[in-house]
Write a structure and sequence with these properties.
Chain lengths: ~120, ~120
């Protein structure tokens, strides 16, 4: 099976602009989670989508949003970019199902490196 | 607040030395536990996981980890490291309740440098 793919891999934007990042999960995985990775804060959870619904959200401002499509592909959007948004944005997919009490492991993509100037 | 602590930020070992990386978490409920590795220039890969059952779990590349519930710990071990184990290692916890679906809480990571 192909792994999690993310596009684009690198992105340079200017403060105030907006950006959309894309993630294609492993085939058959319906859960997609997004994380922000920075040297100072480490890996922080942004949100999780399952069957086109946001099930969970981390402590990020409303400028960070996402969505999931019927084919489980997901996008995240950051509006009004700030310098502090420069980070590696990681997407992870999981075979978890609705209400699964055991949970499942997450498989990560290579990330999108966003630089805000 | 829930947290995951990795005790060592930077570890330097010689090849064939034994490795133990500490990980503690602060949540008292039911959890799934993971160790991920990030080799230079590569994406995060799952090393091993604990869901239930035998608290000693074995992963890929000779790694193992032991879950000690009373200590809220999930330490990673390898008896003999190789130069190719040079990477960053992350401990992660998933709380098993409906408000935490799809959310992994990561430790700050440990950079392992293995000298040939």
């Amino acid at each position: 099976k192909a792994g999690v793919t993310q596009t684009p891999r690198y992105l340079i934007k200017t403060r105030g602009q907006q950006v959309t990042l894309s993630c294609s999960p492993i085939s058959g995985h319906r859960s997609v989670s997004w994380y922000q990775q920075t040297p100072g804060q480490g890996l922080q959870f942004l949100f999780e989508y399952f069957s086109e619904t946001q099930r969970n959200k981390g402590n990020f401002p409303g400028r960070f949003s996402g969505r999931q499509f019927s084919n489980s592909r997901s996008e995240m959007n950051v509006s009004t970019l700030e310098l502090g948004d420069s980070a590696l944005y990681l997407c992870a997919s999981s075979p978890t199902s609705s209400g699964d009490p055991l949970g499942y492991e997450q498989y990560f993509g290579p990330g999108t490196r966003l630089t805000v100037t | 607040a829930q947290s995951v602590s990795q005790h060592n930020h930077h570890v330097i070992l010689s090849e064939a030395a034994s490795l133990e990386l500490g990980c503690n978490y602060s949540y008292g409920g039911t959890v799934n536990l993971f160790w991920y590795v990030q080799y230079p220039g590569q994406h995060l890969q799952l090393l091993l996981k604990y869901f239930s059952g035998d608290p000693l779990v074995k992963g890929i590349k000779g790694f193992e980890a032991e879950f000690i519930k009373s200590k809220f710990s999930f330490n990673l071990r390898k008896p003999s490291v190789q130069w190719s184990d040079t990477a960053e290692y992350f401990c992660a916890v998933n709380r098993l309740d409906s408000s935490n679906t799809g959310k992994l809480i990561f430790g700050q990571g440990t950079t392992l440098q293995v000298k040939p």
